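Researcher: Sequence of BioF2-like acetyltransferase domain-containing protein follows. Predict its structure.
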Amino acid sequence: MYNFKTISIKELENLEYKANFPSNRFEWIYSWYEVFKKVENNVIGFQKQAYIVTGYESDQLVAIIPLVKLIRKFCKCIKLEFIEFLGQQWSCIGHDLIVLKELDSGFTKQLLNWIKKNIRYHFIFFKYVPKKSILTKDFKMYRYSGAPMICISDYKDYNEFAQKVYAKKFRKKLDRTLRKIEKDGFRLSLSYEEINSTNFETIKRISKSKMLDGKSFVYDDENKEKFHKSLYSKFPSHVMFAKFNDYPVAYVANIDCDNARIAIDCAFDRDYRIYGVGVQCMDCNIRKSFSLHKEKYSFGVGMDVYKFQFTKTAMPFYMCFGLQNRLKSLLAKPFVLYKAKKSDQKSKQEFEGVEEYV
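Model: Prediction complete. Tokens:
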């Protein structure tokens, strides 16, 4: 028999636990809620309230579940109450129950019963759930996304990795673009720096050129910029710059967590597109991760095609949902189910030919 109670986010800081994902760490959770708790839109949610649920067996802490209750609007006027993982709404790198001790098969049902009694909602909606989560015992899981990655510890060194993973055509592309860079009079150099206020402005300048390709400029949103800055201050963070004649033209911004390196953000100056500066910079960032003897290298969530020039492997993530027997829940269920099935189909297609890391 398990017992549950809620604590504040600040109280979470005093608990000792090992998180499976950076987005389950106190530093991430605190930063996210501080920045986004007052942001009101249909993606981040309206009227957010954090619920950090702790589970106990007798008096022993056995699990932590960082949740948030929020409202989303359907058809612009119907308000639905959701219970979700805190932070899954934007910029998440995996979420799950934080398990401190092996749990028996009845844990999830007892947790859900406690939530039903203590928090009013229409839907429970969990995203970015790993394949081995205990939630799979009580929810139907739908594929949702993935995080391409490199298991660095599987290789003797970078050279072995590149020979085994990089396609011959891609290795030739790296060599060819290097020759073109030199031929056109540019001197390619690298700069590996801790992220600070000065080089962050350089990151923003380069990132803004994504708009030329019709992509979003993340730092155009002041709250998303604040969140990135907060992450870079709370986690060990570095940026790899690729420079032409000492002028930065591409970057990869990283955070480190539990001997894993995570590429949080990357971009290249579109004025130098023909030189392949983006892939050169990413390749050098991977080399650096090998030299630092990291165990893993993650490209972050999202099955972008360019990432699979560098890896054949990705960690799959799933979503699941449950609902209360309320009129609005029953009316909205067909739409939620349709979105889940559509996501499942899309994610299955993205994983064709990709090795799963679980």
